[in-house]
């Protein structure tokens, strides 16, 4: 009896010590001098996000789609015969944009970058953002994902990456449209020349400098959360605005680890991409250092906490079980499958999820193609309503003018009440996902 009491006391003391230490550590983390989590400046809303292939860009696009919906912004979307991309791999043209999604605040669907065309289309205070991924893991991902879609990869015996890299020019036919997935894909998406000789280092240098002039932030997939922190500061967004659930991830079984010599060969084959990556990874870290690595680490920590809370709220207190497309009951939530050999993971929502949070959860895990369609539908509806509202006063104004009279908010002002429409859950549940609201981080 005595003995039992003693050990209970000991356990209690040990717990007390652990709690105190972790409390102190947490307190210390919040007392660094860091920028506030809630900027007082209005949020910036005019954005071009150049979506690159296999770089976690779908997750970034999902963040932008949700932000646009929540704030009634206009997202330029592809017209129907372009699919869910802007007639990729053609150079972007404003003719590829659905006319009822004009004038836009944001644009984020796949395209081949054309600076002139975008500058004509977008407001003059638009911020340009893109994302790059480490070339070796990116190429492995492209090779697997497009193994059936790109002739360059289809011709390779046994779908062997080793075989391709042993003699790329044997399989790669630059004149084929689908060759874009097989050589310097990032450079191509950015509007550059994917087939420029690897010995032409000046080209890579000049191109990187051009990209740097246009894009205020080049995110890096390997440091996605850190990149998001920079994004949040650049745009004066809140932590809530960048919370996400990871999308479009392959099943473990369809990932291959690279044998020792391969990364070098991949970099040599994609030398312009490799140059861009090293260049912009270096500048990312310069920016992170300028913000203060401690502050960045702290924000990343808070972001991951908010993310875990969101994920748990959506999936009944647990982390979600990733499912293959065929197992997902809600067909809106089934991700696109590039081939029968590549399992893209998706999520199903539990049936008993509360209505207050359902919309936010659904949108956070909705695959790109479905979300693009839904966003287009809601913008078409809004467009039609705005026409109906305007018809009485404006019946003598030419069609062309009426089409572009949707309000364009260049900024979201913080003193406005939150939207009271279908995006309600995002605002009513807001405080649940932000630790330390009220800027606890500033002290
Ligand atoms: C880019 O867009 C501009 C303006 O629309 C156009 O004149 C130009 O030809 C385009 N560039 C390419 C390479 O297609
Ligand atoms: C941007 O456009 C607005 C109106 O659309 C105009 O008032 C402003 O002067 C322009 N700014 C620049 C830098 O061109
Ligand atoms: C393809 O794979 C099979 C079985 O792994 C092997 O026997 C064959 O030699 C491979 N063919 C080539 C061209 O690599
Ligand atoms: C990115 O740059 C940082 C800082 O220079 C470096 O430590 C890191 O290894 C680089 N990451 C990759 C994947 O190259
Ligand atoms: C939903 O059901 C699961 C198991 O069936 C349960 O663990 C979870 O707590 C339930 N969630 C709600 C919000 O009722
Ligand atoms: C969003 O748009 C709808 C429909 O035009 C409007 O009723 C609502 O007030 C708008 N909300 C905000 C925050 O602008």
From TrEMBL:
Topology of this chain in the membrane: Single-pass type II membrane protein
Origin: domain of life: Eukaryota
Gene Ontology cellular component list: Golgi membrane
Gene Ontology BP terms: glycolipid biosynthetic process
InterPro entries recorded: Gal-3-0_sulfotransfrase, P-loop_NTPase
Coiled coil region boundaries: none
Spans annotated as Disordered: 386-443
Entry keywords, A to Z: Glycoprotein, Golgi apparatus, Membrane, Signal-anchor, Transferase, Transmembrane, Transmembrane helix
GO molecular function: galactosylceramide sulfotransferase activity
Compositional bias ranges of the Polar residues kind: 389-408, 421-436
Compartment annotation: Golgi apparatus membrane
Main location group: Golgi
Protein family membership: Belongs to the galactose-3-O-sulfotransferase family.
PANTHER family the record matches: GALACTOSE-3-O-SULFOTRANSFERASE (PTHR14647), GALACTOSE-3-O-SULFOTRANSFERASE 3 (PTHR14647:SF83)
Protein name in UniProt: Galactose-3-O-sulfotransferase 3
Protein's organism: Kryptolebias marmoratus
């Amino acid at each position: 009896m005595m003995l039992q009491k003693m050990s209970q006391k000991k356990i209690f003391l040990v717990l007390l010590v652990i709690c105190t230490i972790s409390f102190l550590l947490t307190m210390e983390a919040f007392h660094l001098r860091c920028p506030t989590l809630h900027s007082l400046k209005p949020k910036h809303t005019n954005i071009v996000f150049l979506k690159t292939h296999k770089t976690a860009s779908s997750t970034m696009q999902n963040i932008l789609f949700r932000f646009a919906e929540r704030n009634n912004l206009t997202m330029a979307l592809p017209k129907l015969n372009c699919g869910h991309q802007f007639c990729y791999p053609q150079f972007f043209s404003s003719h590829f944009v659905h006319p009822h999604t004009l004038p836009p605040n944001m644009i984020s669907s796949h395209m081949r970058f054309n600076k002139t065309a975008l500058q004509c289309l977008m407001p003059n205070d638009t911020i340009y953002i893109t994302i790059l991924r480490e070339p070796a893991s990116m190429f492995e991902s492209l090779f697997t994902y497009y193994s059936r879609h790109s002739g360059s990869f289809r011709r390779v015996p046994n779908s062997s990456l080793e075989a391709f890299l042993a003699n790329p020019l044997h399989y790669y036919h630059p004149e084929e449209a689908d060759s874009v997935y097989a050589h310097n894909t990032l450079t191509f998406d950015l509007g550059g020349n994917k087939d420029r000789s690897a010995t032409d280092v000046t080209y890579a240098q000049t191109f990187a400098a051009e990209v740097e002039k246009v894009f205020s932030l080049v995110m890096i997939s390997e440091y996605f959360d850190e990149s998001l922190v920079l994004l949040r500061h650049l745009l004066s967004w809140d932590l809530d605005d960048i919370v996400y659930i990871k999308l479009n991830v392959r099943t473990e079984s369809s990932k291959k680890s690279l044998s020792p010599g391969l990364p070098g060969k991949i970099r040599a084959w994609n030398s312009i991409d490799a140059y861009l990556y090293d260049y912009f990874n270096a500048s990312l870290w310069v920016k992170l250092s300028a913000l203060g690595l401690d502050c960045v680490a702290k924000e990343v920590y808070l972001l991951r906490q908010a993310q875990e809370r969101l994920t748990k709220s959506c999936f009944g207190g647990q982390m979600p079980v990733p499912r293959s497309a065929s197992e997902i009951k809600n067909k809106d939530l089934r991700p696109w499958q590039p081939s029968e050999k590549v399992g893209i993971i998706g999520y199903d929502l539990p049936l008993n999820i509360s209505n207050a949070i359902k919309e936010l959860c659904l949108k956070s895990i909705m695959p790109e193609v479905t979300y693009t369609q839904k966003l287009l539908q809601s913008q078409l509806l809004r467009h039609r309503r705005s026409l109906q509202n305007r018809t009485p006063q404006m019946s003598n104004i030419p069609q062309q003018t009426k089409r572009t009279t949707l309000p364009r908010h260049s900024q979201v002002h913080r003193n406005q009440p939150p939207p009271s429409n279908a995006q309600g859950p995002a605002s009513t549940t807001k405080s649940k996902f932000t630790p330390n609201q009220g800027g606890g981080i500033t002290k």
